[in-house]
Amino acid sequence: MRDYWLNKLFFDIQQSPVAAEYKKDREAVLARYPMSAELRQALLADDIETIVPHVNAYLLRFYYAIVGMKDAEFIRRLNEIPDAPLAPKGKEEMSHG
Amino acid sequence: MANLVGVYAASHGPMIAREWDSLTPPTRASVEEGFGQVGKRLMASRPDVLVIVSPDHWVNFFLNNFPAFCVGVGAEHDGPPEPFLKKHFHHPTLAGHPGLGQHLMNTAIDRDFDPSMSHRLTLDHGFCLPLWRMGIDPIPPIVPIVINEVDDPMPTMRRCLAFGALLKEAIASYPENLRVAVLATGGLSHFIGEPGMGQIDEKFDRTCISLFERGDPAALASTLEQEVRHTGNGGHEVRNWVVAHATAGNKGFELISYAALEEIYVGCAFAEWRVAA
Known about the structure:
The complex is a heterodimer. Chain A is mainly α. Chain A has helices at residues 4-12, 16-24, 26-30, 37-44, 48-51, 57-66, 71-79. Chain A has one domain (4-82). Chain A starts with a helix and ends in an 18-residue tail after the last helix. Residues 87-93 of chain A have low confidence and may be disordered. Chain B starts with a strand and ends with a strand. Classes of the chains: A mainly alpha, B alpha/beta.
């Protein structure tokens, strides 16, 4: 289920001042977004598996690009999520990037 | 009366701008060739106004207010906010065309179609990346049309066909003598922020291309309505192409080029529709 405030954080962090503040002090920024303790902890721990069900995938991508996670690492973590709705047609039918 | 002088499609993968300076020569050549061809054709059509159909990638709209369709009716719009595109595309603002934009809104309301409207949109990479790579200069006034393709529920393919028909009608009934071109951007397959990111679903892409080439709008809508549910989230952007398809009169398109460009995470395609008289 979507968490409004988690999505709002990921939306707002596209603004440079918010991103800069977040990189400096995550907890101070998170205090302004009334999300659950579980999600707050997941953000602090970069626990993508916990975050994914609650956020729009585009916003998730933007967030991790902004906080500086390399694409290869981000993709690896996404693909390691157990029981994730995998690329639906089967990897054997697809090109790989 | 205004005339529809061309209808085109181009992918808009942001990695093209993010990684432009370090793309491998084959990827770069493929991208340059596709955008170059579409740009050449678009400029040859000498448009006075360019209607661009694209999603909004979480720039203008958020979960507190997310329209299915939005028409930009303003005299001016803001250029791309993305730093990776700003460094290449130096247009802090872009001219709009309030006359045609407002006429499209009025035509929509008259036909019981109720898009949102904006007097000033920020035009992200979906709008501006193709303009940058096509090298269009000067850029004609733009009527931006935003379709929700990033969060459920999204408009049906059938509704996108209807919107395209509406756009066709609005252009044909606009009283000023204007040459109008339409550019649909985005697609084909890509996976963004979800498992499978970086993969390209060539089967989906080939299905899309075949349907757009054939023309039949009913088959296009019904097949794509199913197929987009089984590919990456970026595939939803094919809705822009569906709008363009109907705007051109459902006569089918000529594929200019297609390449599964893994380096930029996108099934990258370029096309020009046959425009019905």
